[in-house]
Amino acid sequence: MTNLFKSMRLLTSLFLLLTMCVFTSCDSDEVLLGNWVQQSDFDGTARTGAVAFTIDGKAYVGTGFNGMNRLDDFWQYTPESDQWVKVADFPGAARSGAVAFAVNGKGYIGTGYDGTSNLKDFWEYNPATNTWTQIADFPGTARFGAVAMSLENKGYVAAGYDGSYRKDFYQYDPATGTWTERAELSGARRVNGYAFAINGKGYVGGGLNNGILEADIMEYSPATNTWRNLRSLNKAERVGTDFPRPRANATVFVLNNRAYVVGGTKVTEVSPENFQSSPINAPAQNDVWEFNPATDTWRMLKNFALIGRESGISFSIGDFGYVGLGRNGTVWSSEIWKYDASRTDN
């Protein structure tokens, strides 16, 4: 598996270099693809189903599945130096399909699947001391494939799979160390969807529900604890406009009040257990879509990399978005790519 991945990466790199030499002087080591710039590879093993959060201009990435084992290692990324440094291992059970968010200078990770059981424990990471502390368990059922986001100094976790598809929604307040159940999603139940926050509101979309790829997009207002459905991703509700096809296991980051949804898979017949524990024999996607919640509109951008990606990680720091890890079929990736919206290649 490792040799196959290295061979594919070598062929991809050679293709990129040959392509760039046609249009540039090739006087730089920088690997470009449209608005994407390849960064240093992740220093841990290639993996899928990892988590990521950012604190004070640094990213923290860990856990996941490398094709053989669940993982508990954690790494810190500094964009200025483009370097990875190993930090304290995650002390809970090694897992994939967990969720993570950051609030008030601390990172939080919980739920997931350890290869045998679904999980509901939750942990807090303090980068100042490089230590982990267990906090109150997630109050919903043990699950994997949930979604998470941060809003107004609180963390939120929703949906996932616990043996059934879920649409419940919970808030964590670090100030009190307590969880509170909030209004459930206004759309469908789902596993392996995506979530993000923009301008004080939360958004949930994508994912799989009983063999159906969900097309709904929901907006959450914490001030009123209410959801509203935006226009779904179908021709009937988006006549004459571009929009992405429904998908599961996409990754998303936010820049300048826009969300960028990258990759994922459009496979519709797979059990949630196998979604986390064995390869999917379906190609991952490499399309990129920019979403403007102020106008509820989508814009298709140039593709991400040359090989599709699903179950990866993403984060944003400063003026850049980052996407990496994940897999395509049976090939696991350790690549990290930076999205530079200032380039004029879209």
From TrEMBL:
It holds the Pfam family Kelch_1. The lineage of its organism: Bacteria, Pseudomonadati, Bacteroidota, Cytophagia, Cytophagales. PROSITE patterns: PROKAR_LIPOPROTEIN. InterPro entries: Kelch-typ_b-propeller, Kelch_1. This is Kelch repeat-containing protein. Residues 1-24 form the signal peptide. Coiled coil: none annotated. The keyword Signal applies. Keywords: Kelch repeat, Repeat, Signal. Transmembrane segments: none annotated. Gene3D superfamilies: Kelch-type beta propeller.
